[in-house]
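Intended use. Records like the one below are meant for learning the mapping from a protein sequence to its folded structure. Do not use them to infer anything beyond what is encoded.
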Amino acid sequence: MQKDLQDLKPRLIETSQETEELIATIEKETLEVEEVKKVVEADEAAANKAAAEAQAIKVGSASLFPSHKGFSCTAEHSPSQI
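Structure written out for the chain above:
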């Protein structure tokens, strides 16, 4: 059993180093993702604000220009017959 452990020791060291490198890569990428996330959240907030402003303009213009219920432009009321 001792011999088996001795035989496996180099592979264990190699695997340990690979694991440490992988952890370092993940930590670096996590920081990069967090930075991108901040930018995306800021863009999302700006888009939501623009959408809210557009909706407010739409609602406001609807009250300035209400629909004319009962009014229709048909052939019987065309300008040529008036």
